[in-house]
Amino acid sequence: MAIIPSTGSNASCEAAIRRTPDDWHLTPEMILRAYSIGIFPMASRREDVSVHWVAPTMRGILPLAGFHVPRRLRRTVRSERFEVTCDRDFARVIDRCAAPRNGHPETWINAEITRVFIELHQLGHTHSIEVYREDRLVGGLYGLALGGAFFGESMFSTEPDASKVALVHLIARLRLGGFVLLDTQFVTDHLQQFGAHEVPASTYLQQLDSALQSRARFYSDLSPDALSSALGRVLTQSSTQTS
User: Fold this and answer.
1) How far is CA 118 from CA 20, 39, 115, 186, in A?
2) Tens digit of pLDDT for each residue in 68-114?
3) Residue 87, burial from CB neighbour count under 10 angstroms (0-12, 13-18, 19+)
4) Which of 36, 56, 101, 133 is deepest in the core (most CB within 10 A)?
């Protein structure tokens, strides 16, 4: 399941779109500037050499304080079913997110987007959560951190609950690091169960501006005790909500 729909569209969300020339290459600086003003790149399909700059009129956000973890998922997170890591294999995660999947033969992540996000990872701006089972990568997600905002890009799963577990781990790290905005760009049925909703672009831009002024740190390396404590706070808070 992609944080941005893997088809690159959303029927409930009109967007301003501008196509780049085929010979125009993305740079890390260009991406950081674009996200800071509320726009992001998408391709029409994986083999497309150009990208579109997208500015949705309704923007998806996932409130960090109100993040809801269903009861069954809380049990899965607490179990030893999956091994979860951070920033261990960013390139592989984005490649799996870009791969066709059942019901979605096309994807919005092309080679140009993949290349520049790997560059951003090498510069410390983008991060991944990996989920393994028996040494197999079965789920994960990636996104970009800027100020106190985190922009969720895409997620994938080849086993039930794997991407959901990745999301819970992401929330724990974001809350620990002082992030105040999790931008999902669009809202899917999958994300609504966690509390994701849409806000008008004008409201989103106000929240983004405030988040960019905030100081936050993305913790890639956490001790087992620190991670357990951060996860425990997310799960305990969610247990007081209706499951």
Assistant:
1) 20, 19, 5, 22
2) 899 999 999 999 899 999 999 999 999 999 998 776 667 889 999 99
3) middle
4) 56
Number of domains, the chain: 1
Q: Looking at the predicted structure, is the pLDDT value of residue 4 above 50? A: no
Q: What is the residue range of 87's domain?
A: 15-238
Looking at residue 205, its amino acid is L
Residue 5 in domain: no
Higher per-residue confidence, 3 vs 171: 171
Read off the CATH number of the domain in which 19 is found: 3.40.630.70
Two structure tokens written together for 187:
């809202």
pLDDT tens digit sequence for 37-64: 999 999 988 888 888 899 999 999 999 9
Across-strand partners of 146? 149
Residue 3 belongs to some domain of the structure:
no
Q: Per residue, what are the HEC states of the chain?
A: CCCCCCCCCCCCCCEEEEECCCCCCCCHHHHHHHHHCCCEEECCCCCCCCCEEEEECEEEECCCCCCCCCHHHHHHHHCCCCEEEECCCHHHHHHHHHCCECCECCCCCCHHHHHHHHHHHHCCCEEEEEEEECCEEEEEEEEEEECCEEEEEEEEECCCCHHHHHHHHHHHHHHHHCCCEEEEECCCHHHHCCCCEEEEHHHHHHHHHHHHCCCCCCCCCCCHHHHHHHHHHHHHHHHCCCC
Q: What is the pLDDT of residue 80?
A: 83
